[in-house]
Structures are given as C-alpha cells and as structure tokens.
Amino acid sequence: MARSTALYGCNSSGPHNLDEAAAYGIVVYDWSHQKLQWANNRPMNDDELLLEQAERVLARDPGVPGEQPKVWVYRNKIKALPWISQVREKLDDPAYAGWFVPFNSSYRGRASNNSFHVPPCDWYGDEVSGPPKCSRFYHDSRQTPTKYGAGPAYTPPAHDHPAHNVCREQCDCGANPCGEYTFDHRNASFADWWVNEYMISEQTLKHRPLINLGWLDDSISLNGMSEGAPLGTWVMDTGSSPQDMQDHTDAFRHNIARLQRAIHARGGFYWQMIQGSGPEVRPVSKSKHGQCHKPLARNVSAAQCAATLREWCAPRPEAWRIAHLYTVCAGEMVEPDLARDATAEFLLTRGDYAWLGYSWSGCEAFHGANATWLRPRPALWDADFGGAPAGPCAETAVGSGVFTRAYPRADVSWDCATGRGEIAWRG
Predict the structure, then answer these.
(1) Strand, helix or coil for residue 332
(2) pLDDT in tens, 111-134
(3) Which pLDDT belongs to residue 169?
(4) Is 278 part of a structural domain of the chain?
(5) Both 172 and 299 in a single domain?
(6) How many other C-beta atoms lie within 10 A of the C-beta of residue 376?
(7) Predicted structure pTM score
C-alpha cells in the first residue's frame, strides 16, 4: 500500500524531511521548493537544489525497479525561468536570442518601464550592486523573487508572498532581471534542446537512479500565456499578430507531442499524464488546480454511487485504461473514518496505474530545514494487504448497492446506501 501513495509538496524554507519523503511511493517537488535558499544564491540555482533534494531521497529509498521513479521534479513547458541554471545560460547568451519571445518594437530599456503591462527593468539598482537590469525579452514578475522595498516606485503585487520571494540583496538571475520569460517554440533548434536536454536531461530521465518529470506547468494559446500578467496583455506587449499567435500555439502543441513520444520511448511519465481521479463516490471539495479544501457534505446519491461502481466493478473496467490520482485533503485525513473511506474507495476500484495521496496545494514556509509538511498520513497507508487483489470489485448481489474486493489479507467494501467504506481484516 505504501508504494501506491503520493505526495506533491513544496517547503519554501529548506529541504524536505527524508523520513516523510521515504514513506511515500512517489514524492514530487515543485519549483518553489527551498525558494528562500535558492532565491538568495548568486546566481540562483533552483534546478541544482531540486536535484540535490531528489538525490537525498533516492539515497534513502531508491524506489522499486521497474515501477515509476520514486522522485519527480518540476519543469515549465512555456515559461523560461532564469532561476533554473539551464535556462539562464541560454537566456544570457546572445547566440540563443531566437529562443525567447521579445517585447514589441517600442522597447527602449529603462525608458519603457511604464510602456508595457509589465516592467522590462527591475527596480533596485544602486551604487554598490550596479544599475537596474533591463531585458528586451518579455517577462512578467508574477511569483518572481525580488528585493522588496528597494525602490520607491515598486510595490509588491498583491498575489505575491514576500516571505517566499525576498532577496536580501539585489536578486541575481544572471545578466537579465529576474522574471518569467517565454520560450519561443517556433524555433527548431530550441525544440531540440527543450526536448532532449532541458526536459529529458541529466537531472531527470537521464539521471541514474531515474528521476521522473513531475508537474509540467503552463501553456500558450491564441489568447497568450496561461498565467502571469492579465489575460491578453502578453499579446499586446509582444506585438503578436493573430498569425503569430496561431504559429506559437501550433508549434507549442507540436513540441508537446514530440516530448510525449520521447518520454514514452524512455518509459517515463509526468504529472499531467495522470488523467483520472478515481470514481469519486467519496466527494471532496477541489479547486480547478486540484487543491483540496474541506470535505463536502455527501452529495452522491445511492443510485449514482451504484451506477458509478457498476462501471468500475467490471471484468475489464474502461477507467483502468488511464492513470488515476485519488486526491485527499489534509483536513479529512486526520479523521479516522474519513481516512478509512478514502483508503477503501482506492483499494476497491484502483487499477494497476493509480496512486492515493496529495496533489499540489500550495507552497508553505515551514520552520527551519528538513521540515515536515502538514500532511497527515493515515496508518492504513502503511498497512500490508498481502499483495494484489483476486480481481476487480463486484456487487455482492444484483441491485444490492454493496461492492466488495478481496485482497490476500483483507476484504474491502463500499456500501452505497450509507456512503461508507469498510476494511475487514482476516484473522
């Protein structure tokens, strides 16, 4: 059971506790992990600290050969983040200027700081650290590390978290100011590097032991970037025509398909390839990003529950054709009955490619290094059910609304009339 649990988290204050990491079958690290540390390194080195964290976990528990890798790490599909060393090296080299989308032709350095919806220059140059840095490449400041209070014209955006983003000195993202830049997927040489050196790299699927790609973030459409500056402003600030946007979108989709084929050829995976979320006969409150909040009042009728489970409790359930993450919420896992229900739902209906655990739910600043996330781990997740079940679940009798599945050491059931799961141990 433990090998089928998942933890996606982010401790902005320092490394993750290895005991907690080792308890999960897979552990996924976000780009903001250890942000308070790498944001103050000169230059910033987010990817190197992610690799160090992954290697520490793998040294404690390398996972099971032939299964999905133990550790997965973040990459962005469209945003060029200069706190990642691999990206910064290209962004700072004029030979690769064609790999990044520029501001429109009105760019004039510091003189254009108020000409766009996002400032092309940072705000905190001084006699010691030098003048403000500017870049002709488009970049926004959402979630970007910065030195707050260093310039009279600058006020931190309301959506930023100063405790997570503060630099003690002028932030060092290389020759360009810190910001979220944009890859230009229309460039053929960029596409080769992006697939074979950035995504599939010595820090991920070429690493031994294997490190999986984790959350592959963000996208581009005809309206511009998926997040960052207000919707539509990216198109204006880059001077992109409708045909430009069509070309950007087509090239992006082409490269995603190419990446997926390359990942598949290596036996790899990434977070967004998990398309399913289980039968959800045990509903919880979820945001559009998968974060959990509080358990919902039961809103699945007995008839709906039975109809759903009859589809899952079949000789070859169609749902098993895709991978599933059965997401739980921290607030409900402290309740023994709710933890039992979540585990029973998972064990009753899971296929070969399924995990139970925590999805992305924000980045927290915990006290000190080696912090433990506030994610309760029910004792059932460390229980030994004796191996694979005898087969899929089945209804106990026609129309009963009670479904069971036999494991070597326990029988798991779900009663649609009561909306509860049970785990009955043998012996």
Answers:
(1) helix
(2) 888 889 998 988 665 555 567 889
(3) 76
(4) no
(5) no
(6) 16
(7) 0.90
Cβ contact 402:394 at 8 Å? no
Beta strands, E only, 323-401: 324-327, 354-358, 394-395
Q: What CA dihedral angle connects 160, 54, 63 and 377, to 10 degrees?
A: -40
Q: For residue 75, what pLDDT is reported?
A: 97
How far, in Å, CA of 44 to CA of 86, rounded? 11
- The sheet carrying 212-217 orders its strands as 212-217, 71-76, 26-29, 5-9, 354-358, 324-327
List of residues 6+ apart from 51 with CB closer than 8 A = 73, 203, 207, 211
Across all residues in the chain, what is the average pLDDT? 88
If you search the block for the tokens 């790498």, which residue do you land on?
38
Looking at the 3D structure of the chain, how many domains does it have? Answer: 2
Q: How far is CA 410 from CA 181, 349, 357, 393, 405, in A?
A: 52, 15, 21, 13, 9
Please report the pLDDT score of residue 162 as a whole number: 47
Q: Are residues 239 and 366 in the same domain?
A: no
The answer to whether residues 265 and 340 belong to one domain is no
- Predicted confidence at residue 163, as pLDDT, reads 47
- 3-state SS, residue 16: strand
Domain boundary among 224, 254, 273: 273
Residue 357 has pLDDT above 50, yes or no: yes
Lookup result for tokens 């003189």: 111
111 lies in the same domain as 45: yes
43 Cβ contact list (under 8 Å, min separation 6):
85, 88, 172, 173, 174
177 and 129 part of one domain = yes
Q: 249 and 360, same structural domain? A: no
Residue whose pair of structure tokens reads 């960029």 in the numeric block: 190
Higher per-residue pLDDT: 68 or 350: 350
Show the domain range for 59: 2-273
Q: Amino acid identity, residue 159?
A: H
Angle at 353 between CA 348 and CA 355, to 5 degrees: 65
DSSP structural state of residue 382: G
- My answer on whether 117 and 199 are in the same domain is yes
| Residue 279 is assigned to a structural domain of this protein | no
pLDDT at 232: 82
What is the rounded CA–CA span in Å between residue 400 and residue 94? 69
Structure tokens at 94: 């004029």
